[in-house]
Specification:
Distance between the termini: 42 Å
Strand content: 15-25%
Structural class: alpha/beta
C-alpha cells in the first residue's frame, strides 16, 4: 500500500514508542532542499529557520514521551549532500531531540541492504519503505506487509556498529 500526503503523515504520527529510520542513500534529491544545498555549497550561512518544521515535530514527539532516531549510512569520501547534512541538518535535528548515529560502510557493509530503499520502523512492529531512484529522488513510500524479522536484525546491526553523530564528525575532521 502506497502512503502519500495525509496518509503518510497519519501513519508516521501514530507511533506510540519509537520511530527509527535506516537512511542509506548517498544523496537525496528533494525539491524543498535544492536551494539550501546550493547555498551551503556556495558557502553561505545557514538560514535561522532551517528545518524548523521538522524540529517542531521532533520536539513534540519527545515531549510526549516518544523517541525518534536514525542511523545514517556513509562512505568515504562524503557526498556534497552528506556534507550539507552534517553541517546544516543533523546537528539541529539532534538538538531538537533526535538520536542520530553514523555507520560508515566504506570497508564493510555489515550485511545490510544499502541500495535503493530506506525505511522507517515504528514501534518495532511496522515498516515503511522509502523507495528512491539512483539520483536520490524519492519514488514513493510503501507500507511493508511482510515479515519484519530481517528489519529488526538490520536495525540491531546498524545500531551495534554505528557511532553517535558528533563522535563520527569529530573523527572526520
Amino acid at each position: 500500500m502506497l502512503l502519500d500526503g495525509d496518509e503518510w503523515r497519519r501513519t508516521f504520527d501514530a507511533f506510540q514508542r519509537d520511530a527509527w529510520r535506516f537512511e542509506a542513500q548517498p544523496t537525496y534529491t528533494m525539491p524543498k532542499e535544492t536551494e539550501n544545498v546550493a547555498r551551503f555549497l556556495r558557502g553561505e550561512p545557514k538560514p535561522a529557520d532551517h528545518n524548523s518544521r521538522w524540529h517542531e515535530r521532533v520536539n513534540d514527539y519527545v515531549a510526549s514521551g516518544r523517541s525518534i532516531g536514525r542511523v545514517r549510512i556513509t562512505r568515504r569520501p562524503l557526498t556534497d549532500y552528506q556534507r550539507y547534512q552534517f553541517s546544516w541538518g543533523i546537528p539541529g535535528n539532534i538538538q531538537a531531540g533526535e538520536d542520530i548515529r553514523i555507520l560508515d560502510v566504506t570497508h564493510d557493509d555489515y550485511g545490510l541492504p544499502l541500495l535503493g530503499t530506506d525505511w522507517w520502523m515504528f514501534d518495532e512492529t511496522q515498516v515503511v519503505h522509502l523507495n528512491f531512484r539512483p539520483d536520490g529522488t524519492q519514488i514513493n513510500r510503501e507500507l511493508f506487509t511482510g515479515d519484519i524479522t530481517p528489519y529488526l536484525e538490520w536495525k540491531h546491526i546498524a545500531l551495534a556498529y554505528s557511532v553517535p553523530f558528533f563522535e563520527y564528525a569529530k573523527e572526520a575532521e
